[in-house]
Amino acid sequence: MRRFLSALWAKLSNRPLALCDSGDVDGITSAALFLRKYPNGVVVLAAPSEVNRSWWIKRLSWTFVADLPCPGKVLIRADHHRTNKPCAKVEFYDPEAPCSALMAMKALDLENDPIANSLVKVAIETDTANITSEEAEKLDLAVRFASYPEKIFIVRNLAVNGLQALGNYRIGRLIERGYRAKKLMLEIADKIPIRDIINIYSPIDLGISYRQLTIELQHRGAKMVNILLRLNRRTFRYYCGADKDSPYDCTQVATKLGGGGHKYASGAQYKSPFFNPGKGVEAFVNTLKAYLSVNKLEVLELAKDSVRIITY
């Protein structure tokens, strides 16, 4: 309701309206670039799955959309996902671009803006899973665990102050929270045996970034990491990461589960049948079996203090 009212207010007050991905630094940076270009604009953040199923997102006309599937009525869109089909009047779309924020900077004519360039630099680091700067790590940790109002706060501060916003006390608290979650993620990663393909099921949310866990396991030697997180009784979230030197294609699994993304990083969110929540895990297992051409699949089930192996 908060997002719908923000969008409605933008329409009633004739303000530029943007829709950007809520899930990562790339989407948050794209949103900040929009507000840098249009300080009186209004930003709405959403996940790709929400764009596909939300009636009001599809009904509204958007000034700018970035890092998301095209909802339909869009003036300008900036994106780099192969699975997101162009539909805007003006497309800044390049599937070879390292991040959507780079395309957003071009779309918004901010290429000569030093603050915009510094923001895009960290977006490239985070979206290519090659974080080398302290600024990129801090912003990534702040965004991963932020609530919706906290993400909007980050967007607005980045738009005005660029990376100096990381020195803001409130954002600093978010970064500290992110470091605590990263510590827990590393402890869990230590319990997971490294193999070429690692399949994981987490029946409860352990308070970590599961995308961060896929990246960590890849850094330790895994060629493909598939993680299924149960969000509630019926809703499941799939994360996939694949090494760029491997033959694996995450989109081949994610699209079968209703999602999308990149060859080496994709995801999906889906629901199991109302009266049979166990079908959510079954869909994950069967999709992987079909993709990997195997009859049996080994899945590691995560708990906070242990990992157990289940063969399907």
SSE layout:
Layout: H1 2-12, E1 17-21, H2 25-37, E2 42-46, H3 48-53, H4 55-59, E3 62-66, E4 74-79, E5 90-93, H5 100-107, H6 114-127, H7 134-144, H8 148-161, H9 169-190, E6 197-202, H10 210-219, E7 224-230, E8 235-242, H11 251-254, E9 260-261, E10 265-271, H12 279-292, E11 298-302, E12 307-311
Parallel strand pairs: 1-2, 1-3, 3-4, 4-5, 6-7, 6-11
Antiparallel strand pairs: 7-8, 8-10, 9-10, 11-12
Helix pairs in contact: 2-5, 2-6, 2-8, 5-6, 6-7, 7-9, 9-10
Organism: Vulcanisaeta distributa (strain DSM 14429 / JCM 11212 / NBRC 100878 / IC-017)
Protein name: Phosphoesterase DHHA1
Write a concise synopsis of the structure shown:
The protein has 312 residues and is of the alpha/beta class.
Structure, described:
InterPro entries: DHH_sf, Oligoribo/pAp-PDE_c-di-AMP_PDE. It comes from Vulcanisaeta distributa (strain DSM 14429 / JCM 11212 / NBRC 100878 / IC-017). This is Phosphoesterase DHHA1. With 312 residues, the chain is α/β, with parallel strands linked by helices. The chain has twelve helices and twelve strands. The chain has helices spanning 2-12, 25-37, 48-53, 55-59, 100-107, 114-127, 134-144, 148-161, 169-190, 210-219, 251-254, 279-292; strands spanning 17-21, 42-46, 62-66, 74-79, 90-93, 197-202, 224-230, 235-242, 260-261, 265-271, 298-302, 307-311. α2 (25-37) packs across α8 and α6 (114-127) crosses α7 (134-144). The protein has a seven-stranded mixed sheet. Strands 2-1-3-4-5 form a five-stranded parallel sheet, with helices on both faces. It is globular. The chain folds into two domains: 2-176, inorganic pyrophosphatase (n-terminal core), CATH 3.90.1640; 192-311, Roll (Diaminopimelate Epimerase, Chain A, domain 1), CATH 3.10.310.40.
